[in-house]
Design goal:
Blueprint lengths: L7 H8 L13 E6 H17 L10 H6 L3 E6 L3 H14 L7 E4 L7 H10 L3 E6 L6 H6 L5 E2 H8 L10
Parallel strand pairs: 3-4, 4-5
Antiparallel strand pairs: 1-2
Helix pairs in contact: 4-5
Length: 167
Amino acid sequence: MVKKSAQSGFYRVIQNPPFNFTLHAVPLRFAEIGCRNRMRQAYYKCLDAYEWSLQCDLKLDPEQCRTCEKTFLLQYEKGVDVALAAQLVIFGSSRTMSFDRVILVAGEGDYQEATRFCRQELGKDLQLVCWRRSLSKELQKLANKDTVFLDDIWQSVFEIRAKPPLE
């Protein structure tokens, strides 16, 4: 079972009034990982800890780990940036999707070419929502609307509201 991300509350907030945004997200992917590989990695980390005189409570047996057949699902983000950039171009180019502004909740330079295409070729407005430390200077130059910094609005977006009394 995968735990819901801490971001799910943020996504819920911006889809409801007063924001009413439509979200287009790319789900994280899963990979089946063999226990023997993960445990072997942990074992070698324990060996490194031992060399530095750090305590390791895992007490792994490398022979047992090498033959272990257990598997588990690992959630990962590989390919998410590329998929989101592709969606940005696809939605921006679609004749059936009518919108004027792209609000990109990211600040990484990976989105630079896709946002450049939407701004320059398609004439869409671009607004960024991100953490200050994650904002790419090149991406910020492409935005033509004020950047919303999560650092500045975090408390107001996620304040805990008391439930209204039942009548």
